Amino acid sequence: MTTASRPFDGIRVRAAQIGLYETPILHGRLADAAALTAALRSAICDRHAAMPSLARSNVGGWHSATDMLDWGGPAAVALADTAVKMAKRASHFDGRDPASLEWTVKMWANVSPPGALNMSHAHPGVLWAAVYYVDMGQPPLSGEASGEVSGEAGGALFFEDPRFPVPFMRLPGFRLVGTDGQPQPIERRLPTEAGDLVLFPAWLRHGVRPHLGTGDRISIAMNIDVKD
Fold this sequence. Notes:
The protein is α+β, with helices and mostly antiparallel strands and about 230 residues long.
């Protein structure tokens, strides 16, 4: 700063911070869903035993084909209908009522044994993605916890801030300060339990941290879209 600016040192600015471009994520718990979840689990275990895995974002886990609505029975159809209802509530189409559109769902199952994870990815070409948690597995046995927090089973669903790669290319470690006055994280983890249904924009990059517990974690993923 030059000495010429000193006469103006008393200048102050009052600036209101505005958070722009909210990213909606809907996180809910299915009520009275024990029977539905059990039916889904049974269908997935049967399919897992009979069919090989696809290779997608999964590392160490089993990924079914995206045709679960063909073999998942009435429980899969009910789950898809529930997810579509959530998507309709979170969607706006200029000049069109979301309820009047024809919605489509592609569904698949994931079975993650200990150590399995899902790499960061997005779901291009569709509007929404969703995941339903059937079985969370079990926490690590005593003395075997190796997660970031001792005793946790891992397998957390995480979302990446889609803005962060650009400023990081300029200066690693730089982060924006949010409306709460804190540095904005580049990643957010969402705690989930069996029976939870999560809906989020399909373009939002996400993944699953390694399963650090015992037993299989079982989840169902969906691509949700509308026909033009």
